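User: We ran a pulldown and think these components assemble together. Before we commit to crystallization trials, I'd like a predicted model of the whole complex to look at. Sequences follow.
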Amino acid sequence: MIVIAEKLNGSIPTCAKAIAERNADYIRDIAKKESEAGATFIDVCASVKEHELETLKWMIDLVQEVTDTPISVDSPDVHVCVEGIKLCKKPGLFNSVSGEGDKIDVAFPIIANTKWEVMALLCDDTGIPKTAAKRIEVFEKVMAKAKEYGIADSRIHIDPLVEMLCTSEDGIAMVVEVMTYIKSHYPKVHISGAVSNISFNLPVRKLVNQAFCVLAMNAGMDSAVLDPLNQDLMGMIYATEALLGMDEMCMEYIGAYRQGIFGQKK
Amino acid sequence: MIVIAEKLNGSIPTCAKAIAERNADYIRDIAKKESEAGATFIDVCASVKEHELETLKWMIDLVQEVTDTPISVDSPDVHVCVEGIKLCKKPGLFNSVSGEGDKIDVAFPIIANTKWEVMALLCDDTGIPKTAAKRIEVFEKVMAKAKEYGIADSRIHIDPLVEMLCTSEDGIAMVVEVMTYIKSHYPKVHISGAVSNISFNLPVRKLVNQAFCVLAMNAGMDSAVLDPLNQDLMGMIYATEALLGMDEMCMEYIGAYRQGIFGQKK
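Assistant: Here's a predicted model for the assembly, 532 residues in total across the polymer chains.
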C-alpha cells in the first residue's frame, strides 16, 4: 500500500495552530513520526487563506530537514503546486489535478519529463459526478491527457472521490464500480482515496474507515491518504494484503508488526 | 449477520474451568451477556472427555434459565447433538454435520420436520479437502441430502472451513471461491464460519479476524461463529453491512451503536 500521510494539513485544527504560531518543532515531529510509521509520501498542505506558497515553503523546508521521505505537495490551487514542487529535493506526488478548468494542462507539461507522480480527482467543472459512468468519463479524459504528455500509467494516482456513507442508499457500490473499471482497464494506475471521508457524521469512525479500506483494497485500491500513526488501520492494511494473497506466509504482516508499525502501545 | 456466540465452549480454558467446577454463575453470566450483545444463537459445547451429554444438559439448562435466545447445540459427536436438541425449549441450531460417516443420515431425519437449523462443515471421510472444487463437491452432497429430507435452503448454514492464513500461499482465495459458488447457486443458504481460525499463530489476531470478516461478508458470509462481546468486531460487521448497501442511511449501524453493541467502554 502506498501511504500518503495526511497529518500535515492546515485543515486539521492542531496543525492549523502550529502553522499560525510557526511552531517548527510540531511540523518536524509529525513528519518524522509519519516517516517512521511507514509513509510513502508525506502530504504537506498549508490550507491558509493568505500567503499559501510562503507557508507551504516553510513546511516543506522543515519536513526536508528531518526526513528523506518524498513529499506530496498538496493544494487546491494548481499554481501553488507548480511552485511547491520546485522546493522539493526529490520527486514526490503532485496533489492534485482534476477535470476542473485547466488544471491538467497546467500541471502535466511541468511534470511530463520528471519522476513526479500525480494525483487526479474524478471531478470536473460540473462538480462531483453522481454516477460511475460520469466519473469514468472524467477518468478517461485524464488518461487521454496523460498519454498526450507521455506520463506513464504507473505515475498516476486516481482518487475516485470517496463520499460520506451516512447519506448513501447503496453503500459504496458506485465507487467500487469506478475502482473495478480502472483496475481492469489500466492495471498500472494507482487507485487512491481519502479514506476517512467515508465515515463523516457517523459514530466510531475508525471502524467504518477500516472496513472501507478492506473493501476498497479488495476492489483494487493500492494507495491512500490516511494517518500512518493509526496503528489499527495500518495493521488492518497489512492483514488485508495477506488475506488478498499479496503476502505469502504473512511475512510482510509479521515484519511490520515486529517493526512496530502496529500492535504496539504508543 | 447471524451471530453464533462462541464463548460457552469447553475448549476455552476459562470456560473449561467453570465446567470442571460446575460454576453455574459463570455459565449464566456469559449466556446473559452474549444474548444482550446481540447473539442470534448461543453456542453450547461441552468439550469434555467424559460425561459429555450430562455436561451439555447442565449447560443448556443454565442458559435457558437466563435467556430465550435459541441455542446452538454443539458437539463433534452427532449423537450427542441429537440428544442435546431434545433438551431445548425452542428450535435452535444443530451444530454440526459434515460429509463424515453417517452424520447427515443421523441428523437430517431428526430435524426434517422441525424448525431447527443446521450447520454443515465441508469436510468428509478424506479430511478437509484442499481445493475449492472438492469442497463444492461435499457441499453439493449436503444439499442433495437436504433436498431428500425436505430441509429448506434457508435452514442450512455452511461452514466452508476457514483455515489459518499464516500457512497460506494465496490468502483466502480458495474459501472466497467456495463462498461465491454457494452464494450464486443457493442464495438462501447461509454462509458461515469460525472467524477466529483465520488468525491462528499470527500477532494482533483481532485485526486479521476483522479484515477477514469484511472480505468474507463481501463474498456472501451472513452467519458466523464469533464473540459478540468483541465490540470492535461487532461494529465492523455493522459498518460492513452499511458499506455493502445493506443498511440504508446507516440506520442499523447507528442503532446498534446507540444500543451499546459497539463503541462503548465496557
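The beta strands of chain B are 2-9, 41-45, 71-74, 93-99, 117-124, 156-159, 190-191, 223-226. That may be worth checking against your pulldown data before setting up trials.

User: Thanks, that helps.
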